[in-house]
UniProtKB/TrEMBL annotation:
Native source organism of the sequence: Saccharomycopsis crataegensis
This protein's UniProt keywords: Actin-binding, Cytoplasm, Cytoskeleton, Nucleus
Molecular-function GO terms, alphabetical: actin binding
Location in the cell: Cytoplasm, Cytoskeleton; Nucleus matrix
PANTHER family: COFILIN-RELATED
Pfam families for the chain: Cofilin_ADF
Domain ADF-H: 5-137
Name of the protein: Cofilin
């Protein structure tokens, strides 16, 4: 349970484990249920396109997401994969929504073992592929 009294639904943990262990999904998007009492699965996808992932983030509302981020190491040293946790809280989202998502984040984040990086996004430039790649690869992937 989070400070806001929001619980993480079992389906949310199951979907995360399918992404992490089963490699069934490329990303999972989470939202709060209508009563704002549980963090539920909003969408899952095995689509490899990062653009498809970004399209799943609403322009005017908050979400959480995990994305199995693949990238090349510089100098052809091979590929890496990291599970990235996103807190999507656009400036245009309702204030109440931003507050509930902010106070509920820790419950979900603590439940997801194996996340390598956290990304906070308030607009699409902060969650662009290049921005996230730079953050998770230590800035040396150009």
């Amino acid at each position: 349970m989070s400070r806001s009294g929001v619980a993480v639904a079992d389906e949310s943990l199951a979907a995360f484990n399918e992404l992490k262990l089963g490699k069934k999904f490329k990303f999972v998007v989470f939202s709060l249920n209508d009563k704002k009492t549980q963090i539920i699965v909003n969408e899952t996808s095995s689509d490899q396109s990062y653009e498809k992932f970004l399209e799943s983030l609403p322009e005017n509302d908050c979400r959480y997401a995990v994305y199995d981020f693949d990238y090349e190491l510089p100098g052809g040293e091979g590929k890496r994969s990291k599970i990235v946790f996103y807190t999507w809280s656009p400036d245009t989202a309702p204030v109440r929504s931003k507050m509930v998502y902010a106070s509920s984040k820790d419950a979900l984040r603590r439940a997801l073992n194996g996340v390598a990086s956290d990304i906070q996004g308030t607009d699409f430039s902060e969650v662009s592929y290049e921005t996230v790649l730079e953050k998770i690869s230590g800035g040396g992937a150009h």
